[in-house]
Design a protein that fits this description.
Strand content: 25-35%
Bound molecules: adenosine-5'-triphosphate
Order of helices and strands: EEEHEEHEHHHHEHEHEEHH
Pfam families: ABC_tran
Keywords: Amino-acid transport, ATP-binding, Cell membrane, Membrane, Nucleotide-binding, Transport
Radius of gyration: 17 Å
Helix content: 25-40%
Shape: globular
Strand order of the largest sheet: 6-7-8-3-9-10
Protein name: ABC transporter ATP-binding protein
Family: Belongs to the ABC transporter superfamily.
Number of strands: 10
Largest sheet: 6 strands, mixed
GO molecular function: ATP binding
Structural class: alpha/beta
Length: 235
């Protein structure tokens, strides 16, 4: 479904990605592990058309994404839920959610159906739909960010560090929801520093170090890999 081949990405003369080759097959939940600055966000920025790779190819189904505009990429079913949520705090929860449906803005009935699905997944957002998004707790704001991405009707959902800054109990809920979204048929690429919880729900994972793929494997092989345990999981 998503295939990176030899992707390089530069910020000026700084090379943030070097020869990244990775894939996610339909229905998979694939995790990207890596320390701060390893290049996880850059992989997402390249896929969603925000930063253009300097080399390589990114295919989404039959389509080449390199050179396409972000709105075209969203409309094709690849939706990016960014690190740090990036909500509009003064706008209502409902307005923030519906912004995610911008590419479907002429389909009012479809937007309502998606909103109902998001409210079924996150009942608290139905209760708080008229509240300013900035008045919600951190965990609820993360739910709005994920819900907004779902309003884009993703076939492939890119989730960038959804557990960042959340309390352990909330982190658990967020991972459960991600697993539900994936089991309902959406392919997921999840960047996380919370390696153990992410691997627990993953089919496969890649370890990114200094812009390169350092290691890849299925959940069990990485959960039991000594280097991964030492660097990302702890004893
Ligand atoms: P984090 O978890 O901190 O977001 P990350 O693994 O997502 O880390 P990236 O954000 O992709 O890493 O950053 C990879 C490298 O590229 C880092 O060294 C970072 O400083 C650099 N970088 C990221 N964005 C830019 C930018 N817009 N301009 C210049 N350098 C950047």
């Amino acid at each position: 479904m998503l295939q990176f081949d030899g992707v390089d990405l530069h910020y000026g003369s700084f090379r943030a990605l070097s020869g990244v080759t990775l894939h996610a097959a339909p229905g998979e939940l694939v995790v990207l592990l890596g320390a701060n600055g390893a290049g996880k966000t850059s992989i997402f920025m390249a896929a969603s058309g925000i930063h253009k790779p300097s080399a390589g190819s990114i295919r989404f189904g039959e389509r080449e994404l390199v050179g396409q505009r972000p709105a075209q990429i969203v409309a094709s079913g690849l939706v990016h839920c960014p690190e740090g949520r990036k909500l509009f705090p003064m706008m209502s929860v409902k307005k923030n959610l519906t912004l995610g449906a911008y590419v479907h803005r002429r389909d009012a009935a479809g937007i309502q159906r998606s909103l109902d699905e998001v409210f079924a997944l996150f009942p608290v957002l139905a209760q708080k739909q008229d509240h300013p998004a900035g008045s919600l707790s951190g965990g609820q704001q993360q739910m709005v960010a994920i819900g907004r991405a779902l309003l884009g009707r993703p076939r492939l959902l890119l989730l960038d560090e959804p557990s960042l800054g959340l309390a352990p109990l909330i982190v658990k809920q967020v991972f459960e929801v991600i697993q539900r979204i994936n089991k309902a048929g959406t392919t997921v690429l999840l960047a996380e520093q919370n390696a153990y919880s992410a691997l627990a729900i993953a089919d496969r994972a890649y370890v990114i170090e200094r812009g390169r793929i350092a290691l890849e494997g299925d959940r069990d092989s990485l959960l039991h890999n000594e280097a991964v345990r030492a660097a990302y999981i702890g004893a």
